[in-house]
Design brief:
Structural class: mainly alpha
Largest sheet: 3 strands, antiparallel
Number of strands: 3
Oligomer: single chain
Order of helices and strands: HHHEHHEEH
Shape: globular
Distance between the termini: 14 Å
Number of domains: 1
Number of helices: 6
Radius of gyration: 14 Å
């Protein structure tokens, strides 16, 4: 189930990135918080850590907007931020466990619907 969820999340992010590149108009199509959550989910499934700066870039939003969204996601308990164990200057962000389980279910169900 997790492999199908990961594959669908990757397809979703590629489509959204392609749409942003080819069509533009992020003010009409952009969902920076959702982009962040998809990016975190993909990296989590791949066992990779996500720095705050790369997560802000993945959102497609201006840096200050992305940081504000990230702060709101942290306050809501949707994501968790922590210092990198190897480089104390870096802040890493990860999905809260409860949301991760919900995203696995969401992307697995969405993959099933595509068949």
């Amino acid at each position: 189930m997790e492999a199908a969820a990961l594959a669908n999340a990757q397809r979703t992010l590629r489509r959204r990135t392609l749409r942003r590149t080819l069509i533009g108009h992020d003010e009409y199509f952009g969902e920076p918080a959702w982009e962040m959550l998809i990016d975190l989910f993909i990296h989590d499934c791949e066992g990779k850590a996500v720095s705050t700066s790369s997560l802000c870039i993945a959102s497609g939003a201006p840096p200050t907007t992305a940081l504000r969204l990230l702060h709101r996601l942290c306050e809501a308990g949707i994501v968790v931020r922590r210092r990198d164990m190897h480089d104390g200057r870096l802040q890493l962000t990860e999905l809260a466990p409860e949301l991760r389980h919900k995203l696995v279910a969401y992307f697995a169900a969405a993959a099933f619907d595509e068949k």
